[in-house]
UniProtKB/TrEMBL annotation:
Residues 23-114 form the DUF427 domain. PANTHER family: CONSERVED PROTEIN (PTHR34310:SF8), DUF427 DOMAIN PROTEIN (AFU_ORTHOLOGUE AFUA_3G02220) (PTHR34310). InterPro entries: DUF427, DUF427_sf. It comes from the Bacteria. Gene3D superfamilies: Domain of unknown function (DUF427). This is Uncharacterized conserved protein, DUF427 family.
Amino acid sequence: MERTVKIPGPDHPITVEPHPSRVVVRAGGQVVADTTRALTLREGSYPPVHYIPLDDVQPTALVPSDTVTYCSYKGDASYFSLVTTDGTVADAVWTYDKPYDAVAAIAGHVAFYPQHVELAGS
């Protein structure tokens, strides 16, 4: 299947910048990630998304999922289910293992759907 690859520009800007402060992610009352190395991705009119280095996420909090999606600006995203004290939330976390060049900095990072976690420091 042919994949369309789009380059960010004035009609669809994307920026990735270091987040200036500490970011703590909690789920089910437990800290699942804590970092001073988050990246903030801003894409068009979408809300900013914090990408957390995978090294700064509790390894027991993530279980790989079979879900895969595609973004023509960022590439293939794979997903994790989030394990919390309240149970497991399917596909609550995503990552781009091999993101396109325009967003290469987010490789090795994960993002959390905000409706499933509490983000402090954002």
